[in-house]
Amino acid sequence: MPMRPMKFLSSSVGTKVLIAVTGLAFFLFLILHLAGNLLIFVGPEAFNSYSHKLVSNPLLLVAEAGLAAIFLLHVVKAVVNFTANRHARPVGYAMKRWARHTSRKSLASTTMIVSGTIIFGFLILHLITFKFGTYYEDPTHHYRDLHRLVLEKFSHPGLVGFYVLCMTIIGLHLRHGLASAFQSLGIEHPQYNRLIRLGGVVLALLIAAGFAAIPIWVYFVGTR
Ligand code: HEM
Q: Where are the chain's structural domains?
Protein backbone atom coordinates (compact mmCIF):
# COMPACT_ATOMS: atom_id res chain seq x y z
CA MET A 1 0.00 0.00 0.00
CA PRO A 2 1.45 3.46 -0.89
CA MET A 3 2.53 5.66 2.04
CA ARG A 4 0.25 8.58 3.00
CA PRO A 5 1.73 11.94 1.82
CA MET A 6 2.14 13.41 5.35
CA LYS A 7 3.73 10.21 6.60
CA PHE A 8 6.10 10.19 3.63
CA LEU A 9 7.11 13.83 4.18
CA SER A 10 8.02 13.15 7.80
CA SER A 11 9.92 9.95 6.96
CA SER A 12 13.69 10.17 6.53
CA VAL A 13 13.49 9.90 2.71
CA GLY A 14 10.63 12.45 2.62
CA THR A 15 12.66 14.82 4.82
CA LYS A 16 15.58 14.63 2.37
CA VAL A 17 13.23 15.21 -0.58
CA LEU A 18 11.75 18.27 1.17
CA ILE A 19 15.22 19.67 1.95
CA ALA A 20 16.15 19.17 -1.73
CA VAL A 21 12.96 20.74 -3.18
CA THR A 22 12.96 23.77 -0.83
CA GLY A 23 16.73 24.22 -1.36
CA LEU A 24 16.28 24.21 -5.14
CA ALA A 25 13.37 26.67 -4.87
CA PHE A 26 15.51 29.07 -2.81
CA PHE A 27 18.29 28.55 -5.32
CA LEU A 28 15.92 29.75 -8.08
CA PHE A 29 15.12 32.82 -5.97
CA LEU A 30 18.87 33.48 -5.68
CA ILE A 31 19.26 33.41 -9.49
CA LEU A 32 16.41 35.96 -9.88
CA HIS A 33 17.73 38.07 -6.99
CA LEU A 34 21.21 38.10 -8.51
CA ALA A 35 19.84 39.05 -11.94
CA GLY A 36 17.98 42.00 -10.37
CA ASN A 37 21.01 43.07 -8.31
CA LEU A 38 23.35 42.97 -11.30
CA LEU A 39 21.37 45.95 -12.63
CA ILE A 40 23.56 47.99 -10.29
CA PHE A 41 26.21 47.74 -13.04
CA VAL A 42 23.76 49.40 -15.46
CA GLY A 43 23.06 52.41 -13.27
CA PRO A 44 20.90 53.91 -10.50
CA GLU A 45 17.77 54.27 -12.62
CA ALA A 46 17.78 50.67 -13.88
CA PHE A 47 18.42 49.37 -10.35
CA ASN A 48 15.83 51.55 -8.60
CA SER A 49 13.08 51.24 -11.18
CA TYR A 50 13.41 47.43 -11.17
CA SER A 51 13.07 47.28 -7.39
CA HIS A 52 10.23 49.80 -7.53
CA LYS A 53 8.34 47.62 -10.04
CA LEU A 54 8.90 44.65 -7.77
CA VAL A 55 7.64 46.31 -4.57
CA SER A 56 4.61 47.84 -6.33
CA ASN A 57 3.43 44.43 -7.52
CA PRO A 58 0.46 43.40 -5.32
CA LEU A 59 1.56 39.77 -5.63
CA LEU A 60 4.89 40.52 -3.91
CA LEU A 61 3.44 39.86 -0.44
CA VAL A 62 2.27 36.40 -1.53
CA ALA A 63 5.69 35.68 -3.10
CA GLU A 64 7.46 36.86 0.09
CA ALA A 65 5.25 34.69 2.29
CA GLY A 66 5.95 31.71 0.00
CA LEU A 67 9.69 32.40 0.10
CA ALA A 68 9.69 32.69 3.90
CA ALA A 69 7.75 29.40 4.19
CA ILE A 70 10.16 27.64 1.81
CA PHE A 71 13.18 28.97 3.68
CA LEU A 72 11.83 28.01 7.12
CA LEU A 73 10.81 24.53 5.94
CA HIS A 74 14.33 24.07 4.55
CA VAL A 75 15.92 25.12 7.85
CA VAL A 76 13.58 23.07 10.08
CA LYS A 77 13.88 19.91 7.96
CA ALA A 78 17.68 20.29 7.73
CA VAL A 79 17.94 20.51 11.53
CA VAL A 80 15.57 17.51 11.97
CA ASN A 81 17.65 15.51 9.48
CA PHE A 82 20.92 16.47 11.17
CA THR A 83 19.76 15.54 14.68
CA ALA A 84 18.11 12.32 13.47
CA ASN A 85 21.35 11.26 11.78
CA ARG A 86 23.35 11.98 14.92
CA HIS A 87 21.00 9.96 17.13
CA ALA A 88 20.85 7.11 14.64
CA ARG A 89 24.60 6.54 14.97
CA PRO A 90 25.45 4.03 17.70
CA VAL A 91 28.22 5.09 20.09
CA GLY A 92 30.64 2.38 18.99
CA TYR A 93 30.13 3.38 15.38
CA ALA A 94 30.70 7.02 16.18
CA MET A 95 33.88 6.25 18.13
CA LYS A 96 35.25 4.14 15.29
CA ARG A 97 34.45 6.90 12.86
CA TRP A 98 36.18 9.50 15.01
CA ALA A 99 39.19 7.27 15.27
CA ARG A 100 39.28 7.27 11.48
CA HIS A 101 38.86 11.06 11.35
CA THR A 102 35.13 11.39 10.80
CA SER A 103 33.73 10.09 7.51
CA ARG A 104 33.55 12.45 4.55
CA LYS A 105 29.76 12.21 4.59
CA SER A 106 29.29 13.23 8.22
CA LEU A 107 31.92 15.94 7.84
CA ALA A 108 29.97 17.34 4.88
CA SER A 109 26.66 17.30 6.77
CA THR A 110 28.27 18.98 9.80
CA THR A 111 29.76 21.60 7.48
CA MET A 112 26.31 22.10 5.93
CA ILE A 113 24.64 22.72 9.29
CA VAL A 114 27.40 25.18 10.26
CA SER A 115 27.35 27.05 6.90
CA GLY A 116 23.53 26.98 6.96
CA THR A 117 23.49 28.60 10.42
CA ILE A 118 25.89 31.32 9.21
CA ILE A 119 23.67 31.93 6.14
CA PHE A 120 20.62 32.22 8.42
CA GLY A 121 22.43 34.89 10.48
CA PHE A 122 23.61 36.63 7.31
CA LEU A 123 20.06 36.76 5.96
CA ILE A 124 18.71 38.46 9.09
CA LEU A 125 21.50 41.10 8.98
CA HIS A 126 21.00 41.46 5.21
CA LEU A 127 17.28 42.19 5.56
CA ILE A 128 17.93 44.70 8.37
CA THR A 129 20.61 46.41 6.22
CA PHE A 130 18.68 46.69 2.96
CA LYS A 131 15.01 45.75 3.08
CA PHE A 132 14.47 47.50 6.40
CA GLY A 133 17.38 49.94 5.98
CA THR A 134 17.18 53.74 5.62
CA TYR A 135 14.45 54.84 3.22
CA TYR A 136 15.99 57.36 0.82
CA GLU A 137 13.68 58.85 -1.76
CA ASP A 138 14.74 59.55 -5.32
CA PRO A 139 13.90 63.26 -5.77
CA THR A 140 13.10 62.86 -9.49
CA HIS A 141 11.03 59.67 -9.58
CA HIS A 142 9.72 59.69 -6.00
CA TYR A 143 10.42 56.03 -5.43
CA ARG A 144 12.86 54.38 -3.04
CA ASP A 145 16.51 55.15 -3.81
CA LEU A 146 17.92 51.72 -2.96
CA HIS A 147 20.95 52.41 -5.14
CA ARG A 148 22.05 55.15 -2.73
CA LEU A 149 21.66 52.78 0.24
CA VAL A 150 23.71 50.03 -1.47
CA LEU A 151 26.49 52.53 -2.34
CA GLU A 152 26.47 53.92 1.20
CA LYS A 153 26.60 50.48 2.88
CA PHE A 154 29.34 49.09 0.63
CA SER A 155 31.56 52.12 1.19
CA HIS A 156 32.52 50.44 4.49
CA PRO A 157 35.38 47.96 3.93
CA GLY A 158 34.27 45.85 6.92
CA LEU A 159 30.86 45.22 5.38
CA VAL A 160 32.42 44.48 1.97
CA GLY A 161 34.71 41.89 3.60
CA PHE A 162 31.80 40.41 5.55
CA TYR A 163 29.71 40.07 2.36
CA VAL A 164 32.55 38.48 0.38
CA LEU A 165 33.13 36.00 3.21
CA CYS A 166 29.39 35.18 3.41
CA MET A 167 29.18 34.76 -0.39
CA THR A 168 32.08 32.27 -0.21
CA ILE A 169 30.21 30.32 2.48
CA ILE A 170 26.99 30.48 0.41
CA GLY A 171 28.93 29.20 -2.63
CA LEU A 172 30.26 26.22 -0.65
CA HIS A 173 26.79 25.52 0.81
CA LEU A 174 25.28 25.61 -2.70
CA ARG A 175 27.99 23.41 -4.16
CA HIS A 176 27.34 20.60 -1.71
CA GLY A 177 23.59 21.33 -1.53
CA LEU A 178 23.07 21.02 -5.27
CA ALA A 179 24.94 17.70 -5.50
CA SER A 180 23.03 16.42 -2.49
CA ALA A 181 19.65 17.59 -3.86
CA PHE A 182 20.24 15.85 -7.20
CA GLN A 183 21.03 12.65 -5.31
CA SER A 184 17.94 12.90 -3.03
CA LEU A 185 15.69 13.48 -6.05
CA GLY A 186 17.30 10.63 -7.96
CA ILE A 187 18.64 12.96 -10.66
CA GLU A 188 21.55 10.79 -11.59
CA HIS A 189 22.74 8.69 -14.45
CA PRO A 190 25.99 6.73 -14.50
CA GLN A 191 26.90 8.31 -17.82
CA TYR A 192 26.15 11.93 -16.81
CA ASN A 193 26.95 11.97 -13.07
CA ARG A 194 30.24 13.81 -13.54
CA LEU A 195 28.59 16.35 -15.82
CA ILE A 196 25.69 16.89 -13.36
CA ARG A 197 28.16 17.38 -10.50
CA LEU A 198 30.27 19.77 -12.56
CA GLY A 199 27.13 21.74 -13.52
CA GLY A 200 26.31 22.14 -9.81
CA VAL A 201 29.84 23.35 -9.01
CA VAL A 202 29.81 25.87 -11.89
CA LEU A 203 26.37 27.23 -10.92
CA ALA A 204 27.38 27.60 -7.25
CA LEU A 205 30.56 29.39 -8.29
CA LEU A 206 28.71 31.75 -10.66
CA ILE A 207 26.13 32.69 -8.00
CA ALA A 208 28.75 33.30 -5.31
CA ALA A 209 31.07 35.25 -7.64
CA GLY A 210 28.17 37.26 -9.10
CA PHE A 211 26.97 38.37 -5.65
CA ALA A 212 30.51 38.99 -4.33
CA ALA A 213 31.30 41.17 -7.37
CA ILE A 214 28.66 43.72 -6.24
CA PRO A 215 30.19 44.92 -2.93
CA ILE A 216 33.71 44.74 -4.41
CA TRP A 217 32.71 46.81 -7.46
CA VAL A 218 30.74 49.32 -5.37
CA TYR A 219 33.66 49.78 -2.98
CA PHE A 220 36.32 50.29 -5.65
CA VAL A 221 34.38 51.82 -8.55
CA GLY A 222 30.74 52.52 -7.73
CA THR A 223 29.56 56.11 -8.20
CA ARG A 224 26.25 57.81 -9.04
C1 HEM B 1 25.86 41.46 -2.70
C2 HEM B 1 24.82 40.70 -2.60
C3 HEM B 1 23.43 41.17 -2.39
C4 HEM B 1 22.87 42.43 -2.58
C5 HEM B 1 23.53 43.69 -3.08
C6 HEM B 1 21.48 42.32 -2.20
C7 HEM B 1 20.59 43.37 -2.20
C8 HEM B 1 19.30 43.34 -1.69
C9 HEM B 1 18.42 44.48 -1.59
C10 HEM B 1 18.76 45.89 -2.05
C11 HEM B 1 17.26 44.04 -1.04
C12 HEM B 1 15.99 44.88 -0.72
C13 HEM B 1 15.02 44.78 -1.86
C14 HEM B 1 13.77 45.61 -1.61
O15 HEM B 1 13.39 45.84 -0.46
O16 HEM B 1 13.16 45.98 -2.61
C17 HEM B 1 17.39 42.62 -0.79
C18 HEM B 1 16.41 41.80 -0.28
C19 HEM B 1 16.57 40.45 -0.04
N20 HEM B 1 17.73 39.70 -0.21
FE21 HEM B 1 19.46 40.37 -1.02
N22 HEM B 1 21.21 41.03 -1.82
C23 HEM B 1 22.38 40.29 -1.91
C24 HEM B 1 22.57 38.95 -1.60
C25 HEM B 1 21.59 38.15 -1.07
C26 HEM B 1 21.77 36.75 -0.72
C27 HEM B 1 23.07 35.98 -0.91
C28 HEM B 1 20.58 36.31 -0.23
C29 HEM B 1 20.21 34.94 0.29
C30 HEM B 1 21.02 34.13 0.93
C31 HEM B 1 19.65 37.40 -0.27
C32 HEM B 1 18.34 37.34 0.14
C33 HEM B 1 17.46 38.39 0.15
C34 HEM B 1 16.06 38.29 0.55
C35 HEM B 1 15.36 37.02 1.02
C36 HEM B 1 15.50 39.59 0.43
C37 HEM B 1 14.06 40.01 0.73
C38 HEM B 1 13.28 39.89 -0.55
C39 HEM B 1 11.87 40.45 -0.40
O40 HEM B 1 11.35 40.50 0.70
O41 HEM B 1 11.30 40.80 -1.43
N42 HEM B 1 20.29 38.51 -0.77
N43 HEM B 1 18.67 42.22 -1.20
A: 9-220
